[in-house]
UniProtKB/TrEMBL annotation:
The lineage of its organism: Eukaryota, Fungi, Dikarya, Ascomycota, Saccharomycotina. Belongs to the esterase D family. The keyword Hydrolase applies. GO terms for molecular function: carboxylic ester hydrolase activity; S-formylglutathione hydrolase activity. This is S-formylglutathione hydrolase. The keyword Hydrolase applies. It holds the Pfam family Esterase. It is an enzyme of class 3 (hydrolase). It comes from Lachancea lanzarotensis. GO terms for biological process: formaldehyde catabolic process.
Amino acid sequence: MGFQIESQISSCGGKLLKLQHESETTGTSMNVNIYLPQQYYKEDGAKIPALYYLSGLSCTPQNASEKAFWQPQADKFGFAVVFPDTSPRGADVPDDPENGWDFGLSAGFYVDATQSPYDKNYKMFSYVHDELPNKLDQFFKSTGSESGSTLDFLDNVAITGHSMGGFGAISGYLKQYASPRKYKSCSAFAPIANPSLVPWGKKAFGNYLGLESAQWEKYDPANLVKNISNKGNDVILIHQGTNDPFYKEQLKPHLLIEAAKGTSWEGKINLNLVDGFDHSYYFISSFVPQHAEFHAKNLGLI
């Protein structure tokens, strides 16, 4: 089954599409928002690359669509933005037995769960990096564009994210690094940089992946940088606010810098500590222009 277009909203020079589809990977209905920039609607046959934005704990596709202000930057450079959901949802999808907001619904952590009862639905790594891009590619090829423009959801793509989504972006980027369809670039806003060592990560990894550290290391960026070779001059861009209440206990971006020392990623992780900024969308939207330009360069748009 393809996508159902729930609504099309004019935004800046393009349109935000709110889509829904049935996922074989999660076994649930999934929502995803996509911003199609103004270039998509011009009759010049443009090829539009895609940026995947992974949201953080408690978010839906709506949050970043409304608050991050990616649309003006997408129009400026000519890329689409894909906003996946943060977890499977539904009455039969298991949630946090402790009724917390940092695990379960809205907190899928972009891993493929192996532990019952979460292993049935919580397959967010496979969903984000495999099923969703392939289904988007098929859907938009089948619908076509009156302008002659095409959307590239598979090959000329980049990835970014915030908090839990920042972890998901860096983890997915590194795990896909050697694949034929690797992301052209990766950035993150206040990512959970070493989840194996912080409360949010320990809770999520323990419940989704079990208690064996080897299973955690498969997703932890601080481990992946030690085992995946940088093939050139690829750089990961990170911004982190110094007034972020989660900075020192949950996020710890300096641990990723430490882990990269002595590896091919040393000096290739650009951590920008920005004074006075917190963890909110005020922080994210302030630095979206820098991240958009970074990705646009890597996507060949500049």
